[in-house]
Specification:
alpha/beta, binds flavin-adenine dinucleotide, 11 helices, TIM Barrel, single chain
Length: 285
C-alpha cells in the first residue's frame, strides 16, 4: 500500500475526504460515492474520526476495508485528545497488522468543547507516538491557514505548526476560500524553516448552511457573495455553481505550486467529479 509521503512530489495528488456513515442509507451512499470516485484514480482517500469516546472504531473498520478492497490507500484520521496512550497504541497495532500505512495525527475536538481527561494535549505528542511505532507510518498533520481558532495569535500558531510539521511528513489544511491564505501559510512556515508539503483542503460548498456552521467552528472566513449566491440555488444548479467556485480555487492553488488537492466531499461524488473534469488536463500528467 502506497505511503502518502512517497506519492507527494512525483505529481500533484488528488485525494478525497469522507466521514464514517451513520445508518444503512448513509453507508450505501458512501459505497456509491467511493465507486464513482474510484474512476478518478485518487492518490489516496482519508476517513475522519470523532474525537474522544469510541469514534475510532468505525474509522478503523472503514479504512481497513478500503485498503483491502480498493486500488488506492486510505489514510486514517487519528485524534488523541480524550484518549489514553494505551488506546492509541492498540489502534496503531490494529492498523499496522492490517497493512494500513497512512495516519493523519490530530488533536481532535471533543464534543461540545467538553474538557475530558486525556494522556494527550496537543497533536505533536501524537505525532511522536506514531513516529515511534515500528510500522513506519507515513504521518500527516492538520494546518489552519487562517490560524487555529483557539490560538491567541497567528504567529504562535505558526510556530507550533512548524515544530509539529517538521516532525511529520506533510500537512493537509482546513478549508479556506482565498488563495492568499494558503500562500501566506506556506511562506510563513518557510520563514520558520519548515518546507514540508502542504496539501490544501478545498471544500465545494454543496450545502452552504452546513458549511457556514463548520466555518464558524474552525475559523474559516466565508465569502458572503459566494455563499449568498449558492443559498439562492438548489439541486444540480447549486452543485454545479459550488464545483465551479471550488475548481477556480483549486486551479489557482495548483498554479501557485500546491503539491495536490484534497477535496472535502461530504460523502458525495457529484461536485468532485465536476472539479476533477474541469481542472487543467495537464495537472495529473
Ligand atoms: P494541535 O496541533 O494540537 O493545535 C491545537 C491548538 O494548540 C492550536 O491553537 C495550536 O497553535 C496550539 N498548540 C499546539 N502545540 C502547542 C503547544 N506545545 N503549546 C501551546 N499551544 C500549542 N477533528 C476531529 O475530531 N476528527 C477528524 O477526523 C478531523 N480531521 C481533520 C482533518 C483536517 C485536514 C483538519 C485541518 C482538521 C481536522 N480535524 C478533525 C479538526 C482538528 O482536530 C481541530 O482543528 C483541533 O482543534 C486541532 O487539531 P490539531 O491537530 O491542529 O491540533
Amino acid at each position: 500500500m502506497s505511503r502518502v509521503v512517497d506519492l507527494l512530489g512525483t505529481r500533484p495528488t488528488l485525494s478525497f475526504e469522507f466521514f464514517p456513515p451513520g445508518d444503512g442509507n448513509a453507508r450505501e451512499q458512501l459505497a456509491e460515492t467511493l465507486d464513482t470516485l474510484s474512476g478518478l484514480t485518487p492518490s489516496f482517500v482519508s476517513i475522519t474520526c470523532g474525537a474522544g469516546g469510541n469514534g475510532h472504531d468505525r474509522t478503523r473498520d472503514i479504512v481497513i476495508d478500503i485498503c483491502g478492497d480498493r486500488p488506492f490507500p486510505a489514510m486514517a484520521h487519528l485524534t488523541c485528545v480524550g484518549h489514553t496512550r494505551g488506546e492509541i497504541a492498540a489502534l496503531l497495532d490494529d492498523y499496522a497488522a492490517a497493512g494500513v500505512v497512512n495516519i493523519l495525527a490530530l488533536a481532535g475536538d471533543p464534543p461540545g468543547g467538553a474538557t475530558i481527561s486525556s494522556d494527550f494535549r496537543y497533536a505533536s505528542e501524537l505525532v511522536e507516538m506514531v513516529r515511534a511505532h515500528p510500522a513506519g507510518f507515513s504521518v500527516g498533520v492538520a494546518a489552519h491557514p487562517e490560524s487555529h481558532p483557539r490560538s491567541p495569535d497567528r504567529e504562535s500558531d505558526r510556530r507550533f505548526l512548524a515544530t509539529k510539521l517538521n516532525r511529520a511528513d506533510f500537512a493537509i489544511t482546513q478549508f479556506f476560500f482565498d488563495l492568499a491564505d494558503y500562500t501566506r501559510l506556506v511562506e510563513e512556515l518557510a520563514d520558520l524553516g519548515c518546507h514540508r508539503p502542504i496539501i490544501p483542503g478545498v471544500m465545494p460548498v454543496i450545502w452552504p448552511r452546513n458549511v457556514r456552521r463548520y466555518a464558524g467552528m474552525n475559523g474559516s472566513t466565508v465569502p458572503e457573495n459566494l455563499f449568498t449566491r449558492l443559498e439562492g440555488l438548489s439541486g444540480p444548479d447549486r452543485t454545479i455553481a459550488a464545483a465551479e467556485a471550488a475548481t477556480e480555487l483549486a486551479q489557482s492553488l495548483l498554479d501557485a505550486g500546491a503539491p495536490g488537492i484534497h477535496l472535502y466531499t461530504l460523502n458525495r461524488s457529484e461536485a468532485s467529479m465536476l472539479i476533477a473534469a474541469s481542472l487543467s488536463p495537464q495537472w495529473r500528467k
